[in-house]
């Protein structure tokens, strides 16, 4: 009898990109990683790295669509002896952004699942179509292989109605499926569990505030391993100040821009999602550049940073209140993992809530989860690198593996 397959290919299909990783779930190691960018343009780029040989290959030139992109990825994998036809491949795990209220768990994809992801397009018009294209293309390449959808929203489906509902007439809310779904759930799940492990506790024993600060950013309150509140809502626009999204604002700003500013709904949508946040405030959405400008005395960059921090602080305070008892605050994603000044400023002045950062520990750069609070503080403050691909692979393998499947080192 041939041994059970142990490899999982993780696909994250965006509107014009596909990110992928091939993992071996016996030890959660990466075999290959890569990215196809600018799909549909003349200047598409595929960058592929085989971890075993350390080889990185880059191909430039037009890649017309997701089908062509996935075929190119499959060819690169084949060149490294890791092709999609390999009997060692157990499944393909797909990141799917919006799973609505229906998908609370990772799910093996069949026609009914595809139809439901499609039905959710009106609440995720940018993401779900790209995710669907990725799934359909992968199915065409390996029709016999289990394909699993891992939803960004799933971790947040445990939110109580009091946190998930907006204060609007349920007739409208229910008809148009308006509620707070939350996103980045795979990251919040992974980081909240990894934080518990860092504290030497089980997820059930701890209450954690997770701050996922990337280009998109969201906070969540996790009680005993279950999400009880999160900052993103019906769409990823709500909540924290982000790279290009405004986050929270008075909804009447939209009426005002339409009635007084004469802007169309599409123009307002673009303004708030693509031209706001740090970028809208100061013209840069990269925290490194903003810090550099602040060091040079740039006022616009300073104000953008201060608004970003003010909002972050409000959410930390709010989630302390939501949780009652907080054991840890965990910073993650590009900004959270790398920007010591953001961590320092977000926690400054919160000693009354039991929160503090040790400047020396905060300045350490490392890839490992680590504590940055001084010994003896009531609430641990931690930096916990996220790994959404590993989490997707782990959840996928747990679903389709042999039953004796190792659940990776992140459960
Ligand atoms: P996403 O997955 O949302 O695109 P990431 O989690 O990769 O984003 O975060 C990207 C952001 O992280 C960048 O826009 C930048 O602001 C920030 N970032 C990355 N590296 C650093 C660094 N060394 N110092 C400060 N900020 C950083």
UniProtKB/TrEMBL annotation:
Q: Which cofactor does it need?
A: Mg(2+); Mn(2+)
Native organism is: Streptomyces sp. 900105755
Please name the Pfam families in this protein's record: Acetate_kinase
Q: Where is this site: Transition state stabilizer?
A: 184, 245
Q: Where are the active-site residues found?
A: 152 (proton donor/acceptor)
List the protein's name: Acetate kinase
Report the catalytic activity: acetate + ATP = acetyl phosphate + ADP
**UniProt-annotated location(s):** Cytoplasm
Q: Note the subunit structure.
A: Homodimer.
Task: Give yes or no: UniProt keyword Disulfide bond.
Answer: no
What gene name is listed for this protein? ackA
């Amino acid at each position: 009898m041939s041994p059970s397959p142990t490899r999982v290919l993780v696909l994250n299909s965006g509107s014009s990109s596909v990110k992928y990783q091939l993992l071996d779930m016996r030890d959660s190691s990466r075999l290959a990683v890569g990215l196809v960018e600018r799909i549909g343009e003349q200047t598409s780029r595929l960058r592929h790295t085989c971890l075993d040989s350390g080889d990185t290959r880059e191909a430039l030139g037009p890649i017309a669509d997701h089908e062509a992109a996935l075929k190119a990825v499959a060819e690169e994998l084949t060149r490294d002896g890791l092709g999609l036809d390999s009997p060692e491949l157990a499944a393909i795990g797909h990141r799917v952004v919006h799973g609505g209220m229906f998908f609370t768990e990772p799910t093996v994809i069949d026609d009914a699942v595809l139809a439901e992801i499609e039905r959710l397009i009106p609440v995720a018009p940018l993401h779900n179509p790209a995710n669907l294209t990725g799934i359909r293309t992968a199915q065409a390449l390996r029709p016999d292989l289990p394909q699993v959808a891992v939803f960004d929203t799933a971790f947040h489906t445990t939110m109580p109605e009091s946190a998930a509902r907006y204060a609007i007439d349920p007739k409208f809310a229910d008809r148009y499926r308006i509620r707070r779904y939350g996103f980045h759930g795979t990251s919040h799940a992974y980081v909240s569990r990894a934080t518990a492990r860092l504290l030497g506790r089980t997820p059930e024993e701890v209450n954690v505030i997770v701050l996922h600060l990337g280009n998109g950013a969201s906070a969540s309150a996790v009680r005993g391993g279950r999400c009880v509140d999160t900052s993103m809502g019906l769409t990823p626009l709500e909540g924290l100040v982000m790279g290009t999204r405004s986050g929270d604002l008075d909804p009447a700003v939209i009426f005002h821009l339409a009635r007084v500013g004469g802007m169309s709904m599409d123009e307002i949508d673009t303004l708030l999602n693509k031209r706001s946040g740090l970028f809208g405030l100061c013209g840069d959405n990269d925290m490194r550049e903003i810090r550099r400008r602040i060091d040079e005395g740039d006022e616009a960059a300073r104000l953008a940073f201060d608004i970003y921090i003010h909002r972050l602080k409000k959410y930390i305070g709010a989630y302390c209140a939501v949780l009652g008892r907080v054991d840890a605050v965990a910073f993650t994603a590009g900004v959270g993992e790398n920007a010591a000044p953001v961590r320092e400023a977000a926690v400054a002045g919160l000693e009354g809530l039991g929160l503090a950062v040790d400047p020396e520990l905060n300045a350490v750069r490392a890839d490992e989860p680590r504590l940055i609070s001084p010994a003896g503080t009531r609430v641990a403050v931690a930096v916990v690198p996220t790994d959404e691909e590993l989490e997707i692979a782990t959840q996928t393998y747990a679903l389709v593996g042999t039953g004796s499947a190792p659940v990776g080192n992140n459960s």
